[in-house]
Amino acid sequence: MEEVLQFLFSQKQSKRYILVHCTHGHNRTGYMIVHYLMRTLSISVTQAIKLFADVRPPGIYKPDYIDALYNFYHERKPEMVVCPPTPEWKRPSDLDLNGDVVPDDDDDGGSAAPLLENHGTETLMSNDDVLGDSIPFNQQDTLRQFCYQALKLGAGVRGNSQFPGSHPVSLNRDNLQLLRQRYYYATWKADGTRYMMLITMDGCFLIDRNFNFRRVQMRFPCKSTNDALAEKTHHYTLLDGEMVIDTLPDSQKQERRYLIYDMMAINQVSIVERPFYERWKMLEKEVIDPRNYERQHVYQSRNPYYRYDLEPFRVRRKDFWLLSTVTKLLKEFIPKLSHEADGLIFQGWDDPYVPRTHEGLLKWKYANMNSVDFLFEVAHSTS
């Protein structure tokens, strides 16, 4: 699948036609074309399969390919979807020299591509787990360029390869005065894994500290203009947050949760220059609320068969409080968290989003969790 995407992406600016074929142009061909339709149009798997079948009847006729598509895009296969019968010209009439049926050569001897995401595992989760699927390098370069543009950064000496996310600095005697001079919010410092996330029609991409992108299957509908459900999904919305592993107190079951604490672009429009309190409110209204509303009314949505429960993690907006509540935050809120925390973050309420090191974004860690970064070099004496 990745090789096909790599090819398609390299031909994106070309005006030439692309021909897709396998032995007979139905199962493997349909499987790839449906993937393409799902990543370029805001439609369901059922609609994409029908689009292909209408122009290339009978369409995909092997059940494992159809099932794999529904599983990959987290959709429940409707009862009305029936796999078409094997075409007359494909029914086994040829026998080999031993009198056995000649094998079907419309596939490569195996089933459709397996899922790379494992949703039913009971293995212990850790912050070192690799999430999502790798993407073509040229697609990653294009997405990196968008991130730099959204954050209003130049390419720099290292090009677009350096992670551009905002980093806090440690609270010390010199910057402690900022908390007295400016208006700050406080939140807990989660002990998780830092990711930015880019939402597109092609899927969602987790962006790690090495500025590498991996695709995860998630759904983020846009805010509707009325009380109806949204008809569009976010396209090039850039978020910042942290992945944590919650341990549910009753069952001790683990759940991944992405805590979103900032938004830098919405549907291709950069908002990094807006004050933090505006971006934080927009995050709730434009991203979290529409998603939660559709989850609660999914059977009335444009895609009533989508299964949010199969997504690799949950999402929520991270809470911030007035600076005067820090004592309560430390003594009452943090001890009740279902994931680890190692301190506090202090965010200026009217700060723009500052890429890389942000001298006004402050972090405080518990004394027993403080660490020292250092670099040492081993030299061998020649004497």
From TrEMBL:
InterPro entries: Dual-sp_phosphatase_cat-dom (IPR000340), mRNA_cap_enzyme_adenylation (IPR001339), mRNA_Capping_Enz/RNA_Phosphat (IPR051029), Prot-tyrosine_phosphatase-like (IPR029021), Tyr_Pase_AS (IPR016130), Tyr_Pase_dom (IPR000387). Coiled coil: none annotated. GO terms for biological process: 7-methylguanosine mRNA capping. SUPFAM superfamilies: (Phosphotyrosine protein) phosphatases II, DNA ligase/mRNA capping enzyme, catalytic domain. One of its GO terms (molecular function) is mRNA guanylyltransferase activity. Residues 1-67 form the Tyrosine specific protein phosphatases domain. Pfam families: DSPc, mRNA_cap_enzyme. PANTHER family: MRNA-CAPPING ENZYME. This is Tyrosine specific protein phosphatases domain-containing protein.
